[in-house]
Amino acid sequence: MTRLRAYTALLATAVLAACSRDGVQIISAPTAGSFIKFYNFGVNAPSVNFFANDVKVTAISSTSCTPATVPPNPACASTGIEATTGTAYGSLGNAGLYSSIAPAQYTFAGKIATATDNGLAVSKISATLENGKHYSLFTSGFYDPTAKTMDGFVVEDAFSDAIDFTKSSARLVNASSNSSPMTMYAKNTLTGDSLLVATGIAYKAGGAFVSLPAAVYDLTVRYAGSNTAVVVRTGVSFVANRTYTIAARGDMTVTSTTATNRPFLDNTANR
What we know:
Elements: H1 8-14, E1 34-40, E2 48-52, E3 55-56, E4 61-62, E5 81-82, E6 91-92, E7 99-101, E8 104-112, E9 121-129, E10 134-144, E11 149-156, E12 167-174, E13 182-188, E14 194-201, E15 210-213, E16 215-223, E17 229-238, E18 243-249, E19 264-269
Parallel strand pairs: 1-10, 12-18
Antiparallel strand pairs: 1-6, 1-7, 2-3, 2-8, 4-5, 8-9, 10-11, 12-15, 13-14, 13-16, 16-17, 18-19
């Protein structure tokens, strides 16, 4: 069985009832346990629920049943039933919040949330989590609809707990399997200054968190040794005393600016 910490009430609220996607857990001091976020970034991936060993740690519940069940299911109007939407491609589980679990070695799995193939593990990732540390798990690569598999990896979120009311920090994680090592610059839209945030970040790797003034930035990713932009995202706000992960995802061969599987820079607050 699992060594998950018994936070029954917390998980019932944060895992099965979480519907908002703009909440961010504030972590201002070390707390016992390990903490992990879940990203579904496998290109063309189905919606999934995430598991730590055999215990489900992300899901979405609904207080309605469509179509209505016969006989009626009391959970439809009370505690809710689990939706089949799960965590869709390009999204985070648990509304982007960290899940608190016991420090241990785990086999994490993304399992299909939809009615078809429900519960089928399409990605398995082994990782050891240490006490007091934060982590991010990514499903990644390309989803294979025949084999029903995709890739995945875990990186540590080694941000500082120090408080700075004038600066924020950011890093780059590369979750795009057909990319080359990436370099990222952040250009301050007010001053025009460009700051180097990351260099040579290979697939399945993440850079260190870099301090930068709180401001609005245009982000540009290039391949190492090249001046050609391969992914751009404009108007990204970095707020003082906040920490951000910029994650590159998608198919780097796609040139459409609207396709779901296009190269994209996701911005998620860690703290």
